[in-house]
Amino acid sequence: MATVIQARIPVDQFALTETFQSCPDVIFECERIVESSQTSVMPLIRIWASDTPRQTLEAALSDDPSVAEYTLIADYEDEWLYRMEWTRHIQLILTMLTNAEAIIRNVYGTSSGWSLQILFPTRDELTVTYEFCGEHDLSFDVVLIRDFDNDQFDSRYTLTHEQYEALMRGFEHGYFAVPRDITAEELADDLKISHQALSERFRRAHAALIEDTLVGRPIRRPR
Q1: What is the pTM (predicted TM-score) of this model?
Q2: Alpha helices of the chain — where are they, by DSSP H?
Q3: Shortest CA distance to 170 belongs to which of 159, 160, 180, 157?
Q4: Which of 19, 132, 175, 220 supports an S-S bond with 60, CB 3.0-4.6 Å?
Q5: What is 149-223's CATH topology?
Q6: Among 78-92, 152-166, 191-205, which range has the highest average pLDDT?
């Protein structure tokens, strides 16, 4: 069975070490991720900064050995979107993931480290990754691990069809409105399940969404 993990990698073993040293407040999020066998795995990067002006950021990017080239796509004052081309400096990590036939699902970076959510075809490929890290003295700290269920309705999230149906039906009928337009008992009847089953389905769905969308994300602090 496929396996999804959330892993942490130190900044100095991946990318943008010098940029983080010059601009410690910046947060990087990969806006678009392609399969790790491609030349540019993280071509679009969204960047936030609470104190660093864009000119300072771009000066740091220009001096960073992990960056081959960058192009500003959009400017929203303290938030920017860049097209990035990376150097071979970060190829060791990418080689590790390519060898394991892994798919990078999301990536976030701060001065404290990089957080990656990665899908491995099986646990065996995850084992290959551990062995690769040991052979090359790489730090690869897995903070979350779970099986990827084939019944999930969308490959980006770990919701099952039943959890997705419960959430969407609840939303459509106003269960999440304030005040509610439908009670839990009425919603359970509509889904033809017990109140207890609905409660458990919601808890599991909420936990899955939190892991998929919040765990590993850095906290953005306004100016």
Answers
A1: 0.68
A2: 17-22, 54-63, 91-99, 123-135, 161-172, 184-191, 195-213
A3: 180
A4: 19
A5: Arc Repressor Mutant, subunit A (1.10.10)
A6: 191-205
For the chain, the structural domain boundaries read: 3-148, 149-223
Angstrom distance (rounded) from CA 32 to CA 124:
27
Cα–Cα distance, 42 to 73 (Å, whole number): 14
**Which residues, 6+ apart, have CB-to-CB distance to 177 below 8 Å?**
none
- Beta-sheet strand order (sheet of 67-75): 67-75, 79-86, 44-48, 27-32, 103-110, 113-120, 3-9, 141-147
d(CA 15, CA 163): 37
Burial of 209 (0-12, 13-18, 19+ CB in 10 A): middle
- How many Cα atoms occupy the beta-carbon half-sphere of 100 within 13 Å? 28
Strand partners, 146: 4
Q: What angle do CA 45, 50, 53 make, to 5 degrees?
A: 75
Helix/strand/coil for 165? helix
What separation in angstroms does the CA of 58 have from each of 55, 80, 171, 217? 5, 11, 43, 23
Which sign does the torsion angle of CA 183, 185, 187, 190 carry?
negative
Contact 178, 160 (CB under 8 A): no
Task: Taking residues 66-89, report their average pLDDT.
Answer: 89
